[in-house]
Write a structure and sequence with these properties.
Helix content: over 70%
Order of helices and strands: HHHHH
Number of strands: 0
Radius of gyration: 19 Å
Structural class: mainly alpha
Strand content: under 5%
Low-confidence stretches: none
Shape: extended
Amino acid sequence: MVMFLKSIFQIILLCTFSLGMTQLVNWLDLPIPGSILGMFILFILLQTKIIRLEWIELGANWLLAELLLFFIPAAVGIIKYKNVLIDDGLYVTLVIVLSTAVVMACTGLTAKKIAERKEQRHLS
């Protein structure tokens, strides 16, 4: 029960942080989305140990595990634009497939580089 409440608190903390960054972007009229600014600032806060990983880890892991659920509203919203899918469905599908492949390749290369660095540090 304690872990559940801790997870809920961490999710609320992450959502509040995200909403705060969105408000900051709107207030400062910045040309980037609040979610991107939030991820960048959260990364810096984690790297500088201002925010410890333990403070958000359970909530972040749950959000990542349930990530697919957050795409359902977007997929349902696409149904409203059937004419776009009929006219440009092949192009949209091609862009989705290619962008997914690029993201997978970049993620794989990044993970490989990180693993190599960790191995070099471990050996030396």
